[in-house]
Amino acid sequence: MSSIDLAADSTLDVFRSRRRQMTLVLLAIAVVVGASSVLTQFSYRTAAISVPKAVGWLVTNIIPDGKALEKLPQIVSKLLQTIVVSVMATVFATVFAFAFAILGSNTTRPHPAFSLAARAVGSLFRNIPVVAWAMVLLMSFGQSQLTGLLALFFATFGFLVRSFLETIDETSRSSVEALHAAGASWLQTVFQAVLPSVLPQVLSWMLYMVETNIRDATLVGILTGTGIGFTFDLYYNALNYRAAGLVVVSLVVVVLLIENVSNLIRRVIL
Amino acid sequence: MQSKDRKEASVSAQRPVLEVHHLSKSYGDVTAMSDVNLHVGTGELVALIGPSGAGKSTLLRCINRMIDASSGEVVFEDVDVQRLGRQDLRRVRTKIGMIFQHYNLVYRLTVIENVLHGRLGYMRGLGGIVGRYSELDKARAVEIIRRLGLLEQIYKRCDALSGGQKQRVGIARALIQDPQIILCDEPIASLDPSTAKVIMDYLRTISAELGIAVLVSLHQVDVAVKYADRILGMNAGRIVFDGAPAALTRDTIYEIYDKDAGELVLD
């Protein structure tokens, strides 16, 4: 009987300490939000008033009209350029990242030293944001398609090395062990066990990066003066907000379209 | 029973397929296995029992050098496996099949593709990399799959199979290697009793009819007693018992499993 009482008491203690934790966390969030709005002189009242005003401005000035629609062929051609660059950057990055991941994964590395090197390279490329890559490359390559392509390639490469490393370790460790035990060589194991196990996930990651890169390419394009990003920048600076609005709308349509297509492909391969 | 006695006599008359002398493995200060000596004869089914962490998996993996032992020797086909270079090790591994607790198949591939992986060790060059198996290998794969009762599943992907079927694919993959010995690492630990019986019956048949030596680590003492020609008991990295199932007494079980756990094992 007494042991049951003890159990009940200690359970209550767990709940009490959980509640105390919760309160502390909420309190901390409130303090951080309050302090930062004081520091930045952020006024909730002004913000609340300006939101409807901004929406009103958007509705009257940025909705594309007939004249903006005349620019559509131009916009579509630039959009296609952006898509092609994004897909190219992603495909190249996938191939290189996969090679690095095979050499670096704990399951398939030829030597432990490779693992460290691949992880270091991947981490370096991943932690530099795509915009920073674009700016650095601008200095050496100037405003060109190549700059945008390389910026997307580097950032994608870094991200994919990490994802592929994890995918390979998760999905093929056990079958790699079995094939090695049966006397299979390293290349045989990579092609017969690793590749079939990870291919669907590799393709899935690639599709995800195509989607991400089309979005990022817009931003990069503003910097490198190419593609749909530049077109937007052009209209925006010329105060042609309706044409700029059309760029945004067509971009959203394309991104949604690509997302749906890649979801469809994923359903088939996974 | 009579046939078993006859086989034991023939086994002792022959030279063992596998001999292990003074084999030890340590990771830094931790000793996983120390001074292990054993031998397995042609067509002999030897069960390796012992509590978790006793070093059963380490021992099996040191035999085909999936793990490199710290000292000692593993003699297989008159050579010390410890000293082989990469190419010779590959050749030796083709003669040593291995079966795993978690099957270790490529689940996105079909049954026959997984079985044919057992032939990769014999293949050189591009053919092995892209998986161009000879017609003879394919015919043998079909025959082995048929013998293991998987003919209906032959073109099914392995992730669609039950646990028992997956393990039979694992056995088929080992058999197509033409091995002299098959190492089995807890082959029935993830299976229900009736499926486990099917798998153990296959292992029994493989050793008795095909003359392939089988070294199998097991959790269940009763299964070991029922199926094995000989039992090895392992505790804390050492072989503490090596003898016929009949010689396994209450005391030796206590020694293998420690006193408290031993009582549970005997129930």
Model description:
The complex is a heterodimer of chains A (270) and B (267). With 270 residues, chain A is mainly alpha-helical. Chain A is globular, with a radius of gyration of 26 Å. In chain A, 88% of the residues lie in helices and 0% in strands. In chain B, helix 7 (163-175) packs parallel to helix 8. The radius of gyration of chain B is 18 Å and the shape is globular. Chain A binds chain B through residues 172, 174-175, 177-185, 187-188, 191-193, 196-197, 199-200, and chain B through 64, 66, 90-94, 96-98, 100, 102-109, 117-118, 120-123, 128-131, 170, 173-174, 177.
Short description:
The complex is a heterodimer of chains A (270) and B (267). By secondary structure, chain A is mostly helical.
Q: Main β-sheet of chain B, in a few words?
A: 6 strands, mixed
Please state the overall shape of chain A, judged from the principal axes of the Cα atoms: globular
Q: What separation lies between the terminal Cα atoms of chain B?
A: 25 Å
Mean pLDDT figure of chain A: 90
Give the mean pLDDT of chain B: 91
Reading the helices and strands of chain A in chain order gives HHHHHHHHHH
Specify Rg of chain A, calculated over alpha carbons: 26 Å
Number of helices of chain B: 11
Compute the CA-based radius of gyration of chain B: 18 Å
Largest interface: A-B, 21 and 33 residues
Task: Give the low-confidence spans of chain B.
Answer: 1-7, 9-13
Principal-axes geometry of chain B comes out as globular
Largest sheet of chain A: none
Blueprint of the fold:
The complex is a heterodimer of chains A (270) and B (267).
Chain A: H1 2-39, H2 44-61, H3 66-69, H4 72-104, H5 112-127, H6 130-141, H7 145-181, H8 186-224, H9 227-237, H10 241-269
Helix pairs in contact in A: 4-5, 4-7, 4-8, 4-9, 4-10, 5-7, 6-7, 6-8, 7-8, 8-9, 8-10, 9-10
Chain B: H1 2-13, E1 18-27, E2 30-40, E3 45-49, H2 56-63, E4 71-76, E5 79-80, H3 86-94, E6 96-99, H4 111-116, H5 125-130, H6 135-147, H7 163-175, E7 181-185, H8 193-210, E8 213-218, H9 221-227, E9 230-235, E10 238-243, H10 250-257, H11 259-266
Parallel strand pairs in B: 3-8, 3-9, 6-7, 7-8
Antiparallel strand pairs in B: 1-2, 1-4, 4-5, 9-10
